[in-house]
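Suppose you are handed a protein chain with no further information: no name, no annotation, nothing but its sequence. What can you learn? This example shows the usual starting point.
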Amino acid sequence: MYLKTHKRKKDGKVNEYYSIVEKRKVTGGNYVQKTVLYLGEISGSQKKSWNKSIKVLNEKNEPGHKTLFALHGDNDICHDVDAIALRLSEMKLQRPRAFGDCWLGCEIWDRLGLDTFWSKRIDTDKSPVAYLKVLKLLAVNRLIKPGSEFYVHHHWFDQSAMDFLLDCDFQVAEKNRLYRCLDRILPYKDELCQYLKKQWETMFKLEYDVLLYDLTSTYFEGLCKRNPKAKFGRSKDKRNDCRQVLIALVVTPEGFPVNYEVLAGNTGEKSTLLDLMAKIEKMYGKARRVWLMDRGIPTEKSLKVLRQSGIDYLVGTPRKLLNEFQRELLVQDWQQINESVCVKYFEKEGECYVLALSKSRMAKERAIRKRKLRDYLSGLAKL
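A reasonable first move is to predict its three-dimensional structure. Written in structure tokens, the prediction is:
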């Protein structure tokens, strides 16, 4: 470890900042740096103190040979040639690492055949580490303990057995290499979706006659000057002070994603449906599918286009229309679908309307009301 100086020029003045950096030797005689502690601005006396502390730490971490067998002259020498004398009181557990979950993540990766898919696309002969291994590291981290690339570099890699499973040292978790890997895979997003769809059809016998479509948002701290899609918009996270992007996702009822799109944060949800449907048809061909979505996504204009195109859909009806359909619903009998759901349905002007009564949904809404009521009573008790 050593004290590293960072110089930044601001308003014509050069400022110096310091951090403690660990230098690790990797294969090929190269070194990878890992920031252990960021110190910021420090005085001259503090700099001397940190240098002394680092010197002491480096002396303690020097490698040395340890004796496993008892030395001559010890009172507890083991005379049995097939035995080894150990001092249990002096044994220590150092650098424990998680293995089982990492092995399972790598096994899923291998079963999906992602090594074959990515090795042809992102690896080059010039890179000292195969980007395929870097991507595998990131994917397994997302599966087990999702975190940022910096978190993988700074904490998670050392706490896992990924170095053993990938047959690679700390070089695979070098900070800048993790970020560059994401830039390499972006152009192959649609190809990956098509490849995974074929794999899931073979492995799980999935059918794609029913697709669920929804949107969510995620926000960023900062100005995001280099992100053209980061815009102010209607925030589902209640963070109207932050720029955001919209994520449109198409999944099967089992939860397997078919495709996704990252849209500008100020995009209206109602304007996204037809474009994404056209893309799905272009990627996977036309088929008789049923699209499920929230009532806030389609407009009456887009629904008209779907009807003219012969596309089936199921969408929530605006509550104001219930009064218009009250007479038709009253004359209908309830039909039991399963133990917890019964429905009424009728057809009108080429549309089929379904009123569903769900016991589990009723229990959920009742629990929500009770929880709010408990919060209100707790607040009144405090007053």
